[in-house]
Write a structure and sequence with these properties.
It is a single chain. By secondary structure, this protein is mainly alpha-helical. The chain contains 18 helices and no strands. α2 packs antiparallel against α3 and α17 runs antiparallel to α18. The chain is globular, with a radius of gyration of 21 Å.
Amino acid sequence: MTLESKIRRSRASILVLALWALLLWFPSASPQSLQATQASDAPDLTRQLDAATHPFDAGKCSEVSAAARQALTKNPKNAQADLWLARCFFELAEYDQAVVYAERTVDLQPSSSQAHLWLGRSYGLEAERAHSFLLARKVRREFETAVQLDADNLAARRDLMEFYLEAPRVLGGGQDKAWQQAEAIAARDAVEGHLAGGAFWQGLHQPLRAEAEYRAALELKPARVEPYFEIAEFYEKRGEAGEVEGALKAALLMQPLDPRLDYYRGVARVLDGGPFSEAEQFLKNYLSRAPARSDFPSYAAAHEWLGRLYERSGRTRQAVEHYQMALRLDAHRREARQALARLHPDR
């Protein structure tokens, strides 16, 4: 089971990897924004909790959690506070607690698409952790409910698309259903539609068709920074340094201080064979200032790239140290494990 730090952009492609593992574990088993704080919440609590979501964007879950818990002491039925606690526990990889608070949110506001989305995500990773086939079967239900409640919830549609694409039929998967979600996303947002299309073709191991979708997205000049990082990630996987740099140009103009720029610039230089001194500094900058967020490249990935850098520049001891660190952070990183076997075949 391969996992980045928690999940990347929380996409269902990671969730269904867990589901596949569960099918192997249980071979005999059979065949998703809260609109507002509840009206009873005092306005000052609403402002306080809303303000706390800003540090959440910087990965500071402790501040958000404290504000949410304070809101709950004054109103135990504050669904918004429950949802933020669920998201905090999700970021901290405490998925059993994320499930508890996401379920509370759904109980309080069953018509909230966003609540069902986060409950589905929490179910998926808790199912993987606990090897629970029962939880795994709930993931699709929550994603489908999120889409039914809000047809314009594109994040839910994207998660559902990738679930359909990767999940076995016993869990409701299917390429035709996945493509229907990609088309529905495209009908609502052209950029997101091309990104969904790129993910779809990646899932079918057709990189040329995926690349065509990503290039079409770039031609539309997205107004948000996230699409550029998603495209950079695609080219990172393909080992194309120039295309990684190309995807970063607009992102650099939009958010020049975004720490993800350091990560991808470091990756591009490693792929391009240097300058290694620049690559080393970019990757170390990322590790020193990037928050540990599920939608950011993981620290394990950055350490693995540093390992590659040091290996290619003949610094074996440093390479081993960073490969080992990558595996301590994420024991399922196959390339880091293979590199250690290569550098230390006797271990």
